Amino acid sequence: MTLPLAGRHVAVLSGGPSAEREVSLVTGDFYAGALERLGARVSRVDPGRDVAEVLARLEPDLVVNGLHGVWGEDGRVQGVLDTLKLPYTHSGVLASALAMDKAKAKAVLAAAGVTVPGGGLFNRHLAARDHVMQRPYVVKPNAEGSSVGVFIVREGANQPPAELASDAWTFGEEVLIEPYIPGLELAVAVMGESNGPKALAVTEIRASTGFYDYDAKYAEGGSTHVIPAKIPDGVRDRAMRMAEVAHAALGCRGVTRSDLRYDDINDLLVLLEVNTQPGMTPTSLVPEQAAHIGLSVDRLVLWIVEDAYARCSAGGTA
């Protein structure tokens, strides 16, 4: 079942309370613009505590979830939408919560045969006092996206990041610490389809700062995207297959993006995490990969909306 968009009422959620609010607002503009070109009547919603009341009053035919980060991407908003019985885009409650918890997601992915980094969860104050593993390593919040709060501790670093012990730290008491994987930064977008998830392409990301952090992801000129990535065919196929397996293992729906590292010296390919609600901005990877395979922005958004509506109409969850 498809959703003819002409005259349909679609609510676009963007903004919200997370650290990724500004990027989410741009993502919302991306979706709203495409939906309006496709003939939909769009209501833009910057959700707060009254999001259930706002949506109940609007009575949209479908909700496009353009939120990023905690609350909007971790299963909580999805639970509200399920309760309201509103069709919505992207993954449902369980997949969203699981993918957002990096440590739990890694355990599921490893059980599915996906190669993931080692490491584990550590109290942030303990990790601030002394190195908890051999350098170089990476420190990241266990439940944030867009490389917020991520530090690379280089081989010659004398001390761990002092920010971990700061009173200004707002990313939880436990941090995920993993060995640093040298080499290439890769990304693979996946579209979940009725006959199984389908990877679109492999992009190599070359950050201007040497690290694909928040600014490299979203600032103009922060990174260069090489698509298709200049890697051996066998590595490309492995990366795409790993992203498809990860999408399915976590129970994801709609579009996801997997982030990987490839150590080309030791031929080691590692999947770092799965983003269940990838950014849709002028510098984002998913629309870029869609265009690479001949899928325009409007057709991509139409697929995302029709996929969500068809699954919900069939009695499933988004």
From TrEMBL:
Keywords: ATP-binding, Cell shape, Cell wall biogenesis/degradation, Cytoplasm, Ligase, Magnesium, Manganese, Metal-binding, Nucleotide-binding, Peptidoglycan synthesis. Pathway: Cell wall biogenesis; peptidoglycan biosynthesis. Mg(2+) 1 binds at D259, E273. It catalyses: 2 D-alanine + ATP = D-alanyl-D-alanine + ADP + phosphate + H(+). GO terms for cellular component: cytoplasm. GO terms for biological process: cell wall organization; peptidoglycan biosynthetic process; regulation of cell shape. The keyword Magnesium applies. One of its GO terms (molecular function) is metal ion binding. Pfam families: Dala_Dala_lig_C. Its main location: cytoplasm. Its cofactor is Mg(2+); Mn(2+). Residues 106-306 form the ATP-grasp domain. It is an enzyme of class 6 (ligase). It is found in: Cytoplasm. SUPFAM superfamilies: Glutathione synthetase ATP-binding domain-like (SSF56059), PreATP-grasp domain (SSF52440). Binds 2 magnesium or manganese ions per subunit. Mg(2+) 2 binds at E273, N275. Its EC number is 6.3.2.4. Belongs to the D-alanine--D-alanine ligase family. Cell wall formation. HAMAP family: Dala_Dala_lig. NCBIfam families: PRK01372.1. This is D-alanine--D-alanine ligase. It comes from Caulobacter vibrioides OR37.
